Sequence to fold (161 residues):
Amino acid sequence: MNRDLVKNDVIVLGLGNPLMSDEGIGCFLVEHFLRQSDKFPNVQFLDAGTGGMSLLHLITERKKVILIDCACMGTPPGSIKRFTPDEVKSVKTLAHQSLHEADILKILDLAKQLKQYPQQVIIFGIEPENIKPGQVLSEALTERMDDYIAVISQELTLFYE
Fold:
């Protein structure tokens, strides 16, 4: 375990709207991790909803920020991909950006300008199947929840090594 780790140097933000089915996947996953937060005692898990400028103070001067969001990437529903902010910007990886995805990239740019950029930012995008009103995830995403949890847990574990 990294002995220099200070409480909450790592934050996991679930982005999205849980009232729009798969659009809320980030929020649903953070809820899971909140129930199991004892596994990662130095990590803050937060349902960040649809983001906005209020996220700036949450990400500044962190060692690691992990963002989890629904992302239309042109892949099969339920697919998960790991990105850095530069990959999202330079390759235009996401075929469609929701308002909160665009906001978070602007917020990261602002943090960089203020010299308060996190040491590492990772974005997990999950391809939706259904973005319609509803508070239940589609079957494609529900079936993969254990996979998402494993991938994100692995990312957190890497930080501690």
Notes: The chain has one domain: 10-155.
